[in-house]
Specification:
The chain is of the alpha/beta class. Helix content is about 45%, strand content about 10%. Helix 11 packs antiparallel against helix 14.
Amino acid sequence: MEGVIDHTMRAMLTSLCDYDRCVTEFLRVTDRLLPERVFFRICPELHQDARTPSGTPVFLQLLGSSPEILAQNALRAVQLGAPGIDLNFGCPAKTVNKSQGGASVLRTPTLVGDIVSAVRQRVPSHVPVTAKIRLGFDHDQDFERIVSELNRGEPTEITIHARTKAQGYRPPAHWHKIKEASQLTDIPIIANGEIWSIEDAIACLDASSSNTLMLARGALMRPDLGRLIKQRLSKQTERPLSWPEIGALLLRYFEDQSKYYDAKYTPSPVKQWLVYLKHYHSPAALLFEQIKKIRDPIEFGEALNKHLRSTAP
């Protein structure tokens, strides 16, 4: 979720739902040990015990293809206070895969095992090391081998996005494949992919035989989705956020962005978030059309405030 779920978005989403943890955007590792400032830039929460303001732990996510260099950077992250390391073997972006990162590593299952093993050996044993994978790169024929290599590397948990890189984000997600993986390993598995609603979450839990979910794009489309899923599963009364409440979150996100980044960049993340929101909230589509061409941050903030006033109950 590069470019959208930065520390300001993490703070907001975790204030709406009692998540077990969240992860940073990926930190790309190539051929060297990165300076400390890079870790703090991608994970400012390191200054606050690596937790969001609501207390949710933040794991630092690494992406790369060199076992030794990744292990060095994982150790530095832990030394700086990261409570856990997440290894990204799932990113489908072309630019990432051209540089031998993300899902491209799945084409060489032994490399997956080598990376996880190197990081696991370098990081203290009490620190979780998790790995996120897809079913494969071009196909899922190597899926069992990938899981076998993860067994060798011994991560604390495995998150499985139930599609290949080639399938990208096209529905459906093949949740039953996650169940197959659970029969190949004793490592706890987290299910991910195509979870847009409470009903999707329940169907995924059933088909995957997992008892844990990871939310990504679904949490952007419906900021309260995690809370609603927990309420349904615990048979509590569900109360979805109203559009005025979500509008207030948009304004808060814009204002938080303005505190940390150059003002000229602050409209863009809000527009990106609206692209997700409009798939479920029809007023978001109207708002997006109204503000999508506004670049001046002052004018943009005024437009957001005007919309909030017009939708206030």
